[in-house]
Design brief:
The complex is a heterodimer of chains A (about 300) and B (about 210). By secondary structure, chain A is an alpha+beta fold. Chain A is about 15% helix and about 20% strand. In chain A, strands 1, 4, 5, 8, 9, 10, 12 and 13 form an eight-stranded mixed beta sheet that branches. The longest helix of chain A has 19 residues. Chain B is mostly helical. Helix content of chain B is about 80%, strand content about 0%. Classes of the chains: A alpha+beta (about 300), B mainly alpha (about 210). At the A-B interface, loops of A face helix 2, helix 3, helix 4 and helix 5 of B.
Chain lengths: ~300, ~210
């Protein structure tokens, strides 16, 4: 079978950038004019301002925006990877509040606009490794998760952080799907993992506001763990003293553990974890321990049996 | 509805061409890059879907003939069965060639470690003797009884094919459950007819 690349476009066929961007403005303005300026559509593709380059930038080629936004695991919108892009159009990413609660000195409910002003936005170009043995490289926009967490002053008794994703029944067709996860989607981290400088709160990608299918308006990104650990569309962050049980742990305790660190040595019953297919590449590549972030995170797990703590 | 020999060969040619449409659509999708962000996965899954669908279509021929009385349907059965083998072969080759790129060690590990791949390989292995003996010369050489006995393996192949799909799925088992329901109906009808025949041995089947 021949894998043929599409023909190269002639320079004359390419719409000049200025014109292309004005086309977008035109679409946005006309939508706004027709439906009222405060509809969620008005936020789609909005550029984020004042982004500075962040640390730990992966030098690998970035996965094109078109693929990052059309190949997603976001079961609230359906279990096919093409579902989220197709069915998340009605999702309401505004108004949005996150409640940060539990074992903290100052529990708070923050508006998404407050979160956006909490810290300067950085671009973090990270590898994303899915447990299904495919990967991408995504330029996220966000800031360290630790900044957000320290904001509420966690108590000494807080050992873990739990993330709860939104349940929007009328806009998320996957919630009523047969044979799905236990909603709301929950994930968790040990507090030192959550405070690691690699862990970020993401509010955008490719310089733009997070598209709905990628976890709008706010999610976490933990590049050394399998993708499902990075909870999307978060509404609650809870500090607790016991290891939280995540949605995937409930669905398949023998397949999904609490840690779920990228580990080529520990196989999953369905997928080999020793190699992965980078989206857009033909040949598989070797999977790196901690997805290549061992220098930043290996110390978190010294003395632990990672085969048991998968 | 009975067909003349000429009409039957026309139908055969039409069905032969129809069975190539899934492959043509995949080829078109690869050529135009319309198979999404992970075309390799898309192609492997689509070929597997069609292999299983053709197993079920083949299994539907006899019940359909009995229900409609259209005996000419039987002349399509071998071709449909061979199409199941054709798509299964493409499904397996794509896995070996494109997905694993002839990494035999990785493939061996997959077969041992991953239950759904173990079952998939077993299913294909069972399909091979059926494909080899799907010609008149082989029926003559084996004798009708033994040939028929061997080809009953298609029931097991159907069940294993569904299991292969079921175990591959991470969470949402809707799709494999649909295939399982269709397979159960097709095999259930056979059981029902078998019982009826046993109860009234004087009545021969249509």
């Amino acid at each position: 079978m021949l894998i043929k690349r599409p023909n190269d476009y002639l320079p004359s066929e390419i719409t000049p950038r200025g014109l292309f961007e004005r086309r977008r403005d035109f679409l946005r303005l006309s939508t706004a004019a027709a439906l009222g300026a405060m509809l969620p559509e008005a936020f789609a593709n909005a550029k984020l301002a004042g982004i500075r380059p962040g640390p730990y930038a992966a030098t690998d080629a970035q996965t094109p925006y078109s693929k990052v936004t059309t190949y997603n695991n976001f079961y609230e919108f359906g279990t096919d990877k093409s579902d989220p892009a197709e069915t998340s159009g009605k999702f309401r990413a505004r108004p949005w509040k996150i409640s940060i609660e539990g074992l903290v000195k100052k529990p708070k409910t923050l508006d998404i606009d407050d979160i956006l002003k909490l810290a300067p936005l950085e671009e973090r170009i990270y590898r994303l490794r899915c447990v299904e043995a495919w990967s991408m490289v995504i330029p996220w926009i966000g800031f360290p998760l630790s900044t957000l967490l320290k904001h509420v002053e966690p108590l000494g008794s807080a050992k873990y952080v739990e993330f709860v994703s939104v349940v929007q029944k009328d806009t998320m067709p996957g919630l009523s799907g047969f044979g799905s996860l236990d909603w709301p989607y929950t994930e968790g981290l040990r507090i030192d993992e959550a405070m690691n400088p690699l862990a970020i709160v993401a509010v955008g990608l490719y310089g733009e506001v997070l598209p709905n299918q990628n976890g709008a308006p706010v999610r976490v990104v933990l590049p050394w763990k399998y993708g499902f650990k990075s909870a999307k569309s978060i509404v609650t962050i809870r500090f607790v003293d016991k290891e939280p049980v995540s949605s995937w742990m409930k669905a398949g305790p023998s397949e999904y553990g609490f840690y779920s660190n990228v580990n080529p040595e520990v196989d999953h019953p369905r997928w080999t974890q020793s190699s992965e297919r980078r989206i857009g590449e033909f040949f598989k590549r070797k999977t790196l321990m901690f997805n290549g972030y061992g220098d930043q995170v290996a110390a978190l797990y010294t003395g632990m049996d990672l085969r048991k703590n998968y | 509805m009975q067909l003349s020999a000429r009409q039957r060969s026309t139908v055969k040619v039409i069905v032969f061409l129809l069975c190539l449409i899934p492959l043509a659509r995949l080829a078109w999708g690869i050529w135009n890059d319309t198979l999404g962000a992970n075309p390799i996965e898309f192609v492997i899954r689509a070929l597997g879907d069609w292999a299983l669908r053709f197993v079920l279509i083949t299994l539907a021929v006899t019940p359909l003939r009995k229900l409609t009385g259209w005996t000419w349907l039987m002349t399509l059965r071998r071709m449909l069965g061979l199409y199941a083998f054709f798509y299964a072969t493409l499904h397996l080759s794509t896995y070996i060639w494109v997905d694993q790129f002839f990494d035999w060690i990785a493939i061996a590990k997959d077969i041992i470690k991953r239950p759904f791949i173990t079952v998939g390989m077993l299913t294909y292995t069972l399909l091979v003797p059926l494909a080899i003996t799907s010609n008149n010369a082989m029926i003559r050489r084996m004798g009708g009884k033994r040939w028929q006995f061997l080809h009953r393996a298609i029931y097991i192949i159907g069940a294993l094919g569904v299991l292969h799909f079921w175990w591959m799925v991470k969470l949402d088992i809707t799709q494999p459950a649909i295939y399982a329901a269709v397979l159960s109906a097709l095999l259930g009808l056979r059981l029902l007819w078998l019982r009826q025949r046993q109860r009234s041995p004087a009545v021969t089947s249509l």
